[in-house]
Description:
Layout: H1 6-11, E1 17-19, H2 28-36, E2 41-44, H3 51-62, E3 69-75, H4 84-93, E4 98-103, H5 107-115, E5 119-124, H6 127-136, E6 140-144, H7 159-167, E7 174-177, H8 183-192, E8 197-199, H9 201-204, H10 213-221, E9 227-230, E10 238-241, H11 244-253, H12 260-267, H13 269-278, H14 301-320
Parallel strand pairs: 1-8, 2-3, 3-4, 4-5, 5-6, 6-7, 7-8
Antiparallel strand pairs: 9-10
Helix pairs in contact: 2-3, 3-4, 8-14, 11-12
Amino acid sequence: MAIRTRVTEMLGIEHPIVQGGMMWVGRAELAAAVSNAGGLGILTALTQPTPDDLRREIERCRTMTDKPFGVNVTLLPSMNAPPYPEYRKAIIESGIKIVETAGNKPQEHVEDFKAHGLTVIHKCTSVRHALSSVRMGVDIISIDGFECAGHPGEDDIGGLVLIPAAADKIDIPMLASGGIGDGRGLVAALALGAEGINMGTRFCATKEAPIHENIKQFIVDSDERGTNLILRKFHNTGRVGKTPVSDKVVEISAQEGSVFEDIRPYVAGAKGREALETGNIEAGLVWTGMVQGLINDIPTCDELISGIMRDAEAIIAKRLGGMLG
Length: 325
């Protein structure tokens, strides 16, 4: 038995499972492994220092898989913004057919991607932003619940409410994201109105994830309570793993009169990269979601996706089917 949805049809993939675009993690090794396992792997554009480096990474990924894969472009407010139009051009000229966008004011990029025939997945954390994205012309919405790693928005709506609330108002296909890491999560997402799932933290704890083994074991050893919300005071809430670094950020932020400059040294992206590459959780932030409480092993991507699909099909056909009578 296979699970077929509009997402599998539109993306040309076997299983309705998409790997989230993650900074420093979305490299060719992981994206190719996810795609080879029947899901959709995603390279992260800004992980590459320059647009030309992204071109090379796309070609490297093509040497590792002949299956569809996409590229993530996350648009973040910045004093020194990356050359987004040049990254966009690299994606288009490299012949990529699927792009995941996230962040602020994506319209210029969405319009250009669509004009060149790309399928656009846009990540949102609220129904109102999802509706805006539909009007913008995106093809698939990835709706990100409060449980997620990264930036869950400021509304604090968990997936159990957010997914069906979005499904009630959106006609295009949706991916459910945040707090999903196994077959139960896939079935729940489908029941709530999504047509596939997007996983980030779960794919970090796989053999092919290009991060240090200590970080993978940190995810396995952590439970669902082991995250911190940071940057809330500055209206840019992020969910990260509970570590000495994120504890310090929370402590400083809680002090009366504290400003962003007080925590800047702890939240720098280069520090997070150092943590992922060296395995030293005291080096920088480790971005993980509540789903770590459901992660107990470090399989290959093929083992993970095969297990998710096997469990999901069994739940639908046997457990839920057996309740009908």
